[in-house]
Design goal:
The chain is built from 16 helices and 27 strands. By secondary structure, it is of the alpha/beta class. Among the domains are: 18-254, ANL, N-terminal domain (Rossmann fold); 463-567, 2-Layer Sandwich (GMP Synthetase, Chain A, domain 3), CATH 3.30.300.
């Protein structure tokens, strides 16, 4: 994009009179309605007999802790509207500090520390936090890289403070002032900043309003049917912040949230069995590990009513294993969305297994279900240029492949300090609403179901036409020795060559003779489908690079560079 693109200023939202709302008020309500219900349970090591230990806070105890932190943080000078960077390990302190900031009216800034130091520091720099609450190791980072933290005026250490100044969270805990009334925010007030994972580009700060959170909570209770008193095991810690508003108990798993692929499935299963977990979200990577462990040890998990899988297309075989062998009455849900708009559609495992899985294997793409209530999804022509103004004529009819765009209450309006990225991702409507360009390519079928065919940035334009990763890869993934494949394009744009990178289930690079056999068999598979016939070049890779958040999204940009090097293509 060039500097000549005119500025696009987000118009006023369509609701001229926002409703009074602060997501933190839900915690007060739950503490009054169910004071002794467990709110947060988190691991605290193991005893001499290797039995798990847990620390538990009831809703009353959690609310009292939140109030004590809110009084202390407000007295320390953190006020309404103040962006406050949080670097706290998953657990009760993370939940309590986040809700204390929301009660004050401040905006927690949440950055995935697993994204790498350079990207992380860039996110800190862009968010310009004026307050910082973090563990000791995070403050060491602040001292080593002061430029990124230059806007921080108030620093709070969670745990032991070493040689730096500022307060500790323990010092700010004020128990004697009682309740802290939530700030009078509205559905249009800024609630939090969360950064995208950066799996397909530079991480971007997404501005969440209190109204965004309200819409997401309404979805979980209305569309999914999550009820008060249920028990949740979140594989992504940020999702734990929804549970107090739902009256749901959060059981934090004993795992490194930044490396879900290293999960110990025994402790995950132990948490489900010990606490009677009813809901759990995790990437397909997590559930592959858990499903194998359960299958190998003949374990069933009858308490599970819902398993949510997202972050990448979910293999139908994994859904079948979960619903037919491990769960005894629940279902798998694969909601579709992005940090900027989550969720926008949903489909059950039952529908996938009964209808769409067979079509996915034929190269239709992955069905991600129907739009949720209040969410509008359209398909528009694929373009890498900004679109300043929405027009209904942009929408393509059912069956035509294009770029997926969405509008509705879960859609965020802009990126933090990223006007260029906002121009590329947002289309503003005359009524003040906004359409978000998901960055995914797909289409609607005749029954109103949305099918996703891959990232727009991963499409391969060739002389033979447009090739999309998900429909193409599905054909080759049918080979019994293949774990997964990745379609990439190499060479100049006007002479782009499609190359299929193959990861074998064995995790090994085959010998030359074996490679030729596999290539011949893959070519035969590709000739069976019209859209994969142009793919005639294959490379073998031991282990695909994946995203840091879910450990499942294939980083095709990196594979494309590697493939070009292997083929000697500039």
């Amino acid at each position: 994009m060039t500097d000549s693109v005119p500025a696009i200023n987000p118009p006023t939202p369509p609701h001229s009179s926002p409703e009074p709302y602060n997501i933190a008020q839900s915690l007060d309500e739950m503490a009054a309605r169910a004071p002794f219900r467990p709110a947060v349970i988190f691991p605290a090591g193991r005893d001499a007999a290797d039995r798990p230990r847990f620390v538990q806070f009831s809703y009353r105890q959690l609310n009292e802790l939140v109030n004590s932190y809110a009084h202390g943080l407000a007295g320390y000078g953190i006020g309404p509207g103040e962006r406050t960077l949080m670097l706290i390990r998953p657990g009760v302190e993370m939940v309590a500090v986040a809700f204390a900031l929301l009660k004050i009216g401040a905006a927690p800034v949440i950055i995935d520390p697993g994204m790498g130091r350079r990207a992380f520091l860039q996110c800190v720099d862009e968010s310009e936090p004026t307050a910082f609450i973090g563990i000791s190791a995070a403050h060491v980072l602040r001292l080593l890289f002061p430029r990124a933290f230059r806007t921080v005026k108030r620093a709070v250490t969670v745990g032991k403070r070493w040689f730096w100044g500022g307060a500790t969270l323990a010092q700010l805990k004020v128990d004697w002032l009682g309740d802290f009334s939530p700030a009078p925010t509205t559905t249009a007030s800024e609630a939090a900043i969360a950064f995208t994972s950066g799996s397909t580009g530079i991480p971007k700060g997404v501005i969440f309003l209190h109204g965004t959170f309200k819409a997401q909570i309404d979805f979980l209770s209305r569309e999914i049917g999550i009820q008060e008193g249920e028990i949740d095991l979140p594989g992504l810690p940020i999702f734990a912040l929804f549970n107090p508003a739902l009256g749901v108990t959060t059981v934090f798993p004993d795992m490194d949230a930044s490396k879900p692929a290293t999960l110990n499935p025994a402790t995950w299963v132990e948490s489900i069995q010990t606490h009677g977990v009813t809901n759990s979200f995790g990437s397909p990577t997590i559930w592959k590990v858990v499903a194998k462990y359960c299958r190998d040890n003949a374990i069933q998990l009858p308490s599970l009513r819902r398993v949510f899988m997202a972050g990448a297309p979910v293999p139908p075989g994994l859904i079948q294993t979960m619903t037919e062998q491990i769960m005894t009455g629940g279902d798998v849900y694969t909601p579709f969305g992005a940090t900027e708009a989550l969720p926008i559609s949903n489909i059950t495992g039952a529908e996938i297994l009964a209808e769409t899985a067979a079509l996915t294997a034929q190269g239709w793409g992955v069905c991600v279900g129907r739009p949720l209530a209040g969410v509008n999804i359209r398909i528009i022509p694929i373009s890498d240029e900004p679109i300043a103004q929405w027009d209904d004529s942009l929408a393509l009819p059912a069956g035509e492949v294009g770029e997926i765009v969405v509008s509705g209450p879960v859609v965020t309006r802009e990126y933090l300090h990223r006007p260029e990225q906002t121009r590329l991702a947002k289309i503003y409507n005359g009524d003040g609403s906004v359409w978000h360009r998901m960055g995914d390519v797909g289409y609607f079928d005749s029954r109103g179901r949305l099918w996703m065919c891959g990232r727009k940035a991963h499409r391969v334009e060739t002389a033979d036409g447009l090739l999309l990763p998900v429909p193409c890869e599905a054909i080759f993934n049918a080979h019994p020795e293949v774990a997964r494949t990745a379609l990439v394009g190499v060479g100049p744009l006007d002479r782009r060559r499609p190359v299929l990178v193959v990861e074998l289930a064995s995790g090994a690079i085959p010998a030359k003779q074996e490679q030729q056999r596999l290539v011949d068999e893959l070519l035969a598979l590709g000739r069976q489908a019209e859209h994969t016939r142009p793919i005639t070049e294959f490379l073998f890779h031991a282990s695909f690079p994946v995203d840091v958040r879910h450990n499942v999204k294939i980083q095709r940009e990196k594979l494309a560079v590697w493939a070009a090097g292997e083929l000697g293509v500039k």
